[in-house]
């Protein structure tokens, strides 16, 4: 199986299927540092990244924003002193699509850059 970070996102329409409970369990194994969160009935993926200071957190948030723009798939990014919280979900379907897991895996990879 190809690692999520190496997979390509697909265009997502409003009628695209959300991940099933079985798919969710399998995909979570590949991004164990992320947590599924339900907010207002919408399932999302969230991870908190910590850094030594604001400047490093800001630089990481900028990398996440650049990644998101390159795929036209945009997360919520909360930048705080020494911390960045990233939340992925697919707005068009009001929940999680495989793309969100791909983007979470790619977000993790940004730590190595």
What is the string of SSEs from the N terminus onward? Answer: HEEHEEH
How big a fraction of the residues is strand? Answer: 15-25%
The structural class is alpha+beta
CATH topology of one domain: Gyrase A, domain 2
Number of helices, counting only DSSP H or I runs of 4 residues or more:
3
Strand order in space, largest sheet: 1-2-4-3
Highest-level CATH class of one domain: Alpha Beta
**Could you give the distance between the termini?**
24 Å
Question: What's the architecture of one domain in CATH terms?
Answer: 2-Layer Sandwich
Number of strands: 4
Radius of gyration computed on alpha carbons = 14 Å
* Relevant CATH superfamily of one domain: Transcriptional coactivator/pterin dehydratase
Give unreliable regions as ranges: none
How would you describe what is shown here?
- It contains three helices and four strands.
- It has 113 residues and is of the alpha+beta class.
- It has a four-stranded antiparallel beta sheet with strand order 1-2-4-3.
- A hairpin with a 2-residue loop joins strand 3 and strand 4 (83-88).
Secondary-structure map with pairings?
Elements: H1 21-28, E1 35-39, E2 42-50, H2 54-71, E3 76-80, E4 83-88, H3 98-109
Antiparallel strand pairs: 1-2, 2-4, 3-4
Tell me briefly what this model is.
This protein has 113 residues and is an alpha+beta fold.
Give short descriptive properties of this protein:
Gyrase A, domain 2, four-stranded antiparallel beta sheet, alpha+beta, 113 residues
């Amino acid at each position: 199986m190809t690692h999520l970070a190496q997979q390509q996102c697909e265009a997502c329409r409003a009628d695209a299927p959300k991940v099933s409970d079985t798919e969710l369990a399998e995909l979570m194994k590949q991004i164990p540092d992320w947590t599924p969160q339900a907010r207002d009935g919408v399932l999302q993926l969230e991870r908190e990244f910590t850094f030594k200071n604001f400047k490093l957190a800001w630089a990481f948030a900028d990398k996440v924003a650049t990644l998101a723009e390159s795929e036209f798939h945009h997360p919520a990014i909360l930048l705080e002193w020494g911390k960045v919280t990233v939340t992925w979900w697919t707005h068009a379907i009001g929940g999680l699509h495989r793309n969100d897991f791909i983007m979470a895996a790619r977000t993790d990879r940004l730590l190595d850059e």
